[in-house]
Structures are given as C-alpha cells and as structure tokens.
Amino acid sequence: MEKEKWYYIDSGARSAAYNMALDECLLNWQSERKMPPIVRFYQWATPTLSIGYFQRVEKEINMDEVEKRGFEFVRRPTGGRSVLHDKELTYSVIVSEDHPDMPKTVTEAYRVISQGILEGFQSLGLDAYFAVPKTQQERDDLKNPRSSVCFDAPSWYEIVVEGRKIAGSAQTRQKGVILQHGSIPLEIDLDTLYDLFLFPNERIKERMKSMFSSKAVAVNALTDKTFTIKQLKEAFRDGFEKGLHVELQTYELTNEQKAEVEQLMKEKYETKEWNYKK
C-alpha cells in the first residue's frame, strides 16, 4: 500500500521570532489546504527562552538574566511551560484535525504524533517509552506543575528514558489544524536554565534544580556516544516516517511564502505586545 506523502522542511538555525512565525504560517497554510501535513525540524540561531501561551512573564521569568546573557525571548502560540532552546533539535508537526489518522482528543493526538519521536529515540539505541501517569498524585501534578520549567515533569505520552523525561512538547488546535512542536535536547545546562526563572528564595531554587536532574535528561547524558544535530535529524526523520506511516518529501518555501513569514515575524513575534502580553 502506498504511503501518504507529507512535506518535510528543515529550516536550520533561525531567530526565535522567525521560528514561531513559520510554525504559525504552516498552520495557516494547512488550514487553507495549500499543502499536505508537514514535519519541520529547526534550531535556534541564539539561545532562546520560549514561554507557553498562558505563562505570565513578570511572575515567572527573570528577564534581567535573559537580557544579560544576550538570549532571545519569545512567547509560543502553544501552551505548556518554559523551554531554554540551545543545544537541541526542535520539531513541529502540522496536520489537519480531520485527518483520518488523528484522534479527536488532545491527549490521544499527542500519542499518535509522538510515536514518531519515540521511533526516533529508539533508532538512536535509547530505551524510550511513553509517559503515562499512573497515580492520582501524578495526574494532579500535571494539572498543577510545581515550577515554570517545561522539563520539570512529563505529561501524558511524552517520551521517557530510564524514568526521566527526554523530550518536551506542546500542542495547540486552531482553524481546524493541530500544531505540535517540541524540544529534543542534546545537552541541558542546568545552572543557566534555573537562573532564568523567579523563585521565592534561593533555597527553593536549589531544591527545584536538584529535583530536576531526577526528572529530566538530555540525549548525550544517556550514552557514551556524542550525537550531533545531523544524526538527530536523520534518526527523527526516519522515526516520523515509521511512526506516522508516511513518506516525507523535502519542501522549500517559495519567495511568496518566505515574505509572509517575515511579515508575521515583524508584526507579531518580534513585538512586546505579543511576548509580554500576560
């Protein structure tokens, strides 16, 4: 049986505003039926702190530290908590809600899309599996996270290796389209990460930081090998093809599409009105 053909876009390393603008444009084009479903890989030209759509900057983020370090800052169109994007591969999947293989619920759609991520990790030789909260306490923790940091705890169907979260994802549904994007870190700089958030006092900050190491891990901390971004791209491109049962065809944006992304970037994702709105 012939596999469905999806587009594959490798954007390389771009600015924070460009990365979010392109994801939103891909959602819009998918809604307008201008292209098939898309898997996109990208990186960040400058280390970037992204926050979830519902997070409040003044209560959670140490913006003085973000600016002092010369990091970029952007609000995502998706929910979830904050992520420091640095030494990582970021992915996005854009697919219509009415696609025959997409479940109606957010949780089950996570499971289907994340099968591609799971296959990618397994092709790297990692014993990855889905997180499924078993106890009531674990379910309550998902509703009431203890910190602003994305990798603090796994959500339903996120990927875990040796009991620790190894990929963070977020999803939104707009205009009849599912956008799921997420972070696959090669390395995590814990000291830098926790300096970017506000805590009631230093003792709580240090306690949260020490707990983090038992809950999250980066790819290169799990193996004697040192994987590269290129190797991640190869593994996860194959993983998405296998996990979603599709064929990925490389696609390049047209000049018109590039101009649309640039316009949205300037009008929305580079503005304080968007990034600091909560």
From TrEMBL:
Pathway recorded for this protein: Protein modification; protein lipoylation via endogenous pathway; protein N(6)-(lipoyl)lysine from octanoyl-[acyl-carrier-protein]
Residue span, BPL/LPL catalytic domain: 33-248
TM stretches of this protein: none
UniProt-recorded Gene Ontology molecular function terms: ligase activity
Enzyme class: transferase
Coiled-coil region(s): none
Active site, renumbered: C150 (acyl-thioester intermediate)
Signal peptide limits: none
UniProt xrefs under InterPro entries: aa-tRNA-synth_II/BPL/LPL, BPL_LPL_catalytic, LipM, Octanoyltrans_LipM/LipL
The keyword Acyltransferase is annotated on this UniProt entry: yes
Chemical reaction(s) catalysed: octanoyl-[ACP] + L-lysyl-[protein] = N(6)-octanoyl-L-lysyl-[protein] + holo-[ACP] + H(+)
Its EC number(s): 2.3.1.181
Site (Lowers pKa of active site Cys): K165
Keyword set, alphabetical order: Acyltransferase, Ligase, Transferase
Additional free-text comment from the UniProt record: In the reaction, the free carboxyl group of octanoic acid is attached via an amide linkage to the epsilon-amino group of a specific lysine residue of lipoyl domains of lipoate-dependent enzymes. The reaction proceeds via an octanoyl-thioester enzyme intermediate.
Family: Belongs to the octanoyltransferase LipM family.
Subunit structure: Monomer.
Function in brief: Catalyzes the transfer of endogenously produced octanoic acid from octanoyl-acyl-carrier-protein onto the lipoyl domain of GcvH, an intermediate carrier during protein lipoylation.
PANTHER family: OCTANOYL-[GCVH]:PROTEIN N-OCTANOYLTRANSFERASE, OCTANOYLTRANSFERASE LIPM-RELATED
Protein name: Octanoyltransferase LipM
Annotated gene: lipM
